[in-house]
Amino acid sequence: MKRSLGLLLSLALAGAPAAVSAASRVPGITSSSRFLVYYGQDYGPTVLATLKQANLVVLHPTNSAQLTPSVVAELQGAGVKVIAYISVGEDPAPLDAAGNPIPIVGNGQGPVRYTGGSTGYDASKIVPANGGVASFYVDQLWNSSQGQYVSDGLPDVNTNFGGFFIWPNDDWRWVLNEQRIGGVPSTSLANRSVAGLKQLAGARTSATDTNRTHDFGFDGFFLDTLDTAGPYVNAWGYYAWVAPEMQKTVKFIHDSYPGKIVFANRGTFFFNPLITNPTHGIRPYQYSLRPYIHAALFESYALDSDASHTGLSPYLPVNRDNYAQKLMAEANRPDGFTVFSLDYDMGRGAALSAQARQETAIKNGWVEYIAPTGQLDTLGTYVATHPPAADTAAPVWDSTAAYAEVINPAFPDVPDRVGVQSLSLTSRPGEVVVHWDVARDQSLPVRYNIYRSTSSTFSNPVKYAQVNFEVGEGWSTDPTTKFANQYTLTGLTPGTHYFRVRAEDSASVPHEDTNTVTLSITVPTYVSNPNASINVNGDLSDWAALTSFAVDPQDATASGDVADWARAWLAHDANNLYLALQNHVSITQLNAAFSVYLDTDNTRSTGFRGGGDQFPVGAEFVLLGTSLYRYTGTGLDWQWTLVGTAGFSWGGLNAELFVPRAWVNNPSVINLFFLGDNPSLGGTTVDAYPDAALNPQGAVRSFLYQLQ
């Protein structure tokens, strides 16, 4: 009796590790390393001699009867890292007598299609056809003549290569893990002869073993056909809704084989935040592979396999200016990966190969291989005989802001983003977030050094060397206006601080760039008025001894303007939060023109950030006149729920209010700003307090209040 795929998967995973650390770069590999991809049949002495000259090779174990465990052992003995090809997004099924691929029957629930709309991935919208094949086959191909996706009840086939397109769910992960050359008796894989993860990674019986049904002992896996999850709209062979399960599959491989190299082929869309599939609202970057891979391949970067392209690839501009920089932003992170590139000579000659080498290894720091033909069945020697010159230059700054065109290189040039790009305060005393973009270099990874001075002449700076940076806030959805990287400095004293960011490579003698781009920001003193004794009566005499926020000039003088901030205070006692307002003109009604936005959880990533993402805070609460509202939206939409009405009093230029601290979640710190929303009530001027609140480059954009 054949066991179900689901049961076999649970048995296969029973011994998987509970927790595994994030992946990292391939050790010992640099842009000068030798790299080969070979899918040929011949493993005679000449081929082996060439492979032994490489530092890392990718081989196709299912392709050649001559590729045995002993060959892998021989190459490893020569110091070569040997990586095994495996298809994760397509099933290279065996063929019947008529030449048609044979699907796995499995649980009979497949093929499946996706019926979700444009609001994002919804697993419940994956509909099984119960057509008598396994649950991981898909049936939703784009039909260009009909202008729509069609389903015929049969698994979709890649007519170029003969395999089935895959939704890589748990059942498929079992197949990837268990399939073997020679088949797996008494299972759905009995008639299939494809090497799976267990066979590829398993320990060899000996270094001289020539039995191809035994375990090979490869150093890792080359994951092909990731692009089945491609987000491209109305395009044959891409299924955007596959992305979440593809991420799970790569994570499964990483977690199940922690000692092995996970090498991703193609799938650059997983690293490009700009790309969203509008049909389903799926952004592949949300399902990034970065934590689970050690390496990624950029295929056909400068020289593609299309013989009709006699020069550099027509897609090189978009590869270089759009995809490469976003890929490198991800690869260069502290939990990043090594980037390899595969170009094709196709008879184009040494001059173009030299140009490709310049683009990939010298400019980008990638590990390059130039194959003789598109079949990968012969070995090229150009890269081995043309090593790059020693790195003598500092990193060069670039930009991740280029547009997301996939095949149209005619988009406007984007200026380089050199050095520090912006500074922002957090809601914690003495913290400044430094933002910058990307630099490229021959010797990766690029490190970043932050310099800080309290002098406008930048004398005696403090250096923060090779900071452990993170993804820049907002970059994961908008790299055109946000920046790839950020680092938070803590413990800074109140006053103006000046910052620079410089890039440093990983050469044996490091090179650091010398840019002098400088930005400054003023670290404020936190206001705190604890244990206040406030009588809310419109008379501000009991506030005279308390610390206020900055004085604001008269700047809302147009007809109809009623809110023109002059000064404000906060105070608190054990139960209440008090607010005093002083206006430049008499307050006749404390209405919604007087609005105060309160960030109570110390992060801009939650709360309302303004309809144009222009607020300096993420506001959990807003006080509109005397009404306190709690934010219930997703960040940019205007969605609020009434909490209650504040206690209040006003008279002349003054107003006082109070709310229970519990109404605003009893915070320890509040980051706030004031908005005189006069246009909402027929006036003219939007009076921000502080004045720079809505200016992204402003030195002081909000006030900080600390509750003790």
- Low-confidence spans: 1-18
Determine the mean pLDDT.
93
What class do helices, strands and sheet pairing give?
A: alpha+beta
Question: Which radius of gyration do the C-alpha atoms yield?
Answer: 30 Å
Strand adjacency order, main sheet: 1-2-3-10-11-12-13-14
How many alpha or pi helices?
9
Counting DSSP E segments of at least 2 residues, the number of strands comes to: 35
Helix content: 10-25%
Terminal residue distance: 69 Å
Approximate shape: elongated
Characterise the protein shown here.
The protein is of the alpha+beta class. Among the domains are: 35-93 and 170-293, no CATH class; 420-523, Immunoglobulins (Immunoglobulin-like, Sandwich), CATH 2.60.40.10; 541-706, no CATH class. It is 12% helix and 25% strand. The chain has nine helices and 35 strands. The strands form nine sheets. Strands 1-2-3-10-11-12-13-14 form an eight-stranded parallel beta sheet. A hairpin with an 8-residue loop joins strand 33 (669-677) and strand 34 (686-689). Helix 1 (5-13) packs across helix 4. It is elongated, with a radius of gyration of 30 Å. The chain starts with a helix and ends with a strand.
